[in-house]
Amino acid sequence: MGRIPGRIVGEIVGVIAWDDVPDPERRWRHFSRDELACHATGDCYLELGMMDALEQMRVLYGPIQLSSGYRDAKSPYEKHKAEPGPHTLGCAVDVVVYLSRQRYEIVSAAMRLGATGVGIAGTFVHLDWAPIGWRGIRPGLWHYKG
């Protein structure tokens, strides 16, 4: 699989296929390929720095449930967008949340671990580690309508 051509995220760390990471289950022992892979294609490309931050977050915060990780640009969630979002770069996840306190703790932990994009919705929190200045909107914090 290798790296996504032309899609290097962050200053030094790049995007790599889960299957090309040496012993990913040991490096990110609180995550599985299945929970991070694109629901439409099954591909799984990830930004290493984001994954290391998420592993630290799970160690510090405890169990978190992901509803979305990597998304192929042709996936139903992305193909209608004018420009694909950070999920297609392998540097974003959506975390399932139900309680205000849970939302606060997840957002606080992610920001301490370098998240540059935070989107808050009723049932999930979007977290991303897109590079500062990405599309002129990072760092950024927003609320989803509805």
Sequence stretches where pLDDT stays below 50 over 5 or more residues = 1-12
* Strand order within the widest beta sheet: 3-4-6-5-7
Major sheet size, sense and barrel closure: 5 strands, mixed
The H-and-E topology, N to C, reads as EHHEHEEHEEE
Question: If you average the pLDDT, what whole number results?
Answer: 88
How many individual domains? 1
Give helix % range.
Answer: 10-25%
Notes on the protein architecture:
This protein is α+β, with helices and mostly antiparallel strands. The chain has a single domain, classed as Muramoyl-pentapeptide Carboxypeptidase, domain 2 (2-Layer Sandwich). It has 4 helices and 7 strands; from the N terminus they run E-H-H-E-H-E-E-H-E-E-E. It has a 5-stranded mixed beta sheet, covered by helices on one side. It has a two-stranded antiparallel sheet with strand order 1-2. Strand 5 (117-120) and strand 6 (124-128) form a beta hairpin. Helix 3 (48-61) crosses helix 4 (100-112). The radius of gyration is 14 Å and the shape is globular. The model is unreliable at 1-12 (pLDDT under 50).
